Amino acid sequence: MAETAVATLTKAPVHFDIVGSFLRPERLKQAQRDLNDGKISQADLTKIQDEEIKDLVEKEVKAGLHYVSDGEFRRHWWHLDTFWGFEGIKKTNVDHGYLFHDVETRAESAQVDGKIRFTDDHPDLKAFLYLKEITKDLDVIPRQSIPSPAQAYAELVRGEENIAILKKFYPKHEDLVHDLTTAYHDLYLALYAAGCRDIKLDDCTWGMLADTDFWAEQNIDQKGVDELQAEYLKINNQSLENLPEDLRISTHVCRGNYASTWAAKGGYATVANTLFTKENVESFYLEFDDDRSGDFAPLAKVPAGKQVVLGLVTSKKPELEDPQVLIDRVREASQFVPLENLALSTQCGFASTEEGNHLTEDEQWAKIKLVVDTAEKIWG
């Protein structure tokens, strides 16, 4: 794709979008099982991933999407694979997985085993290079989604064992923050050098802090919550310093998305003063698909000129929302953010992990069509 076309698309207002992960096709799932059973090689799996990603991108283009992803088809998790890709962080098995509303996930985590740094063999860079190659002649923008640095930090201090090992390599907290944010910054620059102009930071840390029941379960008082918000903000913003001006950075704030279940609840009011006013991103992708998400009032904190992508269409259930209800909710949100700075999206990805949500691929694409068609009615 020519650079002039990229510039034109980047500047043009786009009022519909996706979060990025797609249901894994059965062929891809079977290939992963075959690799685990020793029936095929990693090279065989990579070839199948390449073919399925190419097919996915063709479907995204056909659906009319401006920003396209690789569906996260090479990942097991939306976040852990990225952490494992940094030197100094390893994959671990833990006693318990993440606790969602009705289910517990696989019990895997990430743990420091040396000094953290970015290397050129990072899987996210490899993934983007292929996505860039297959979209170079298309009028779309390939996007790379990455779990936020704050999310990585939260994982590295998850549990007493992780904390104890972390202190062996990083007795000084500021050294950890420096190395982690530098590794992320280097990843951003490597992606930019590979042609990436759109990076989305997926982040559950703010969603958890919005949940007052979570505070109580973790024995965190208001002072503790304020300190965590300041910590997460510092880590994210420090990684974003001194980046190229034409690299668009956005963030998606999630409350958990695993097998159609959720992990946190609560509106954005408790984090709005920090997240919306101080995080150095251009766009906020926010979940508003059910009552757990709260109302639109906190959007009044979003600075003028920044975009809010309203996740009004759930990716967790197959039933299609009423287009008129979506239109009315967008109009309601425009009381707090100008309509020209709003966009419509699914509330999250369809498969934040390889398990995926409980709907079919046809139902997935019907959701995306609903987003595109409804946006056309609102913005023309």
From TrEMBL:
EC number(s) given by UniProt: 2.1.1.14
Enzyme class: transferase
PANTHER family: METHIONINE SYNTHASE
Name assigned to this protein: 5-methyltetrahydropteroyltriglutamate--homocysteine S-methyltransferase
Gene Ontology molecular-function annotations: 5-methyltetrahydropteroyltriglutamate-homocysteine S-methyltransferase activity
GO biological process, one term: methylation
NCBIfam families: PRK06520.1
InterPro entries: Met_Synth_C/arc, UROD/MetE-like_sf
Organism, as annotated: Fructobacillus americanaquae
SUPFAM superfamilies: UROD/MetE-like
Keywords associated with the record: Methyltransferase, Transferase
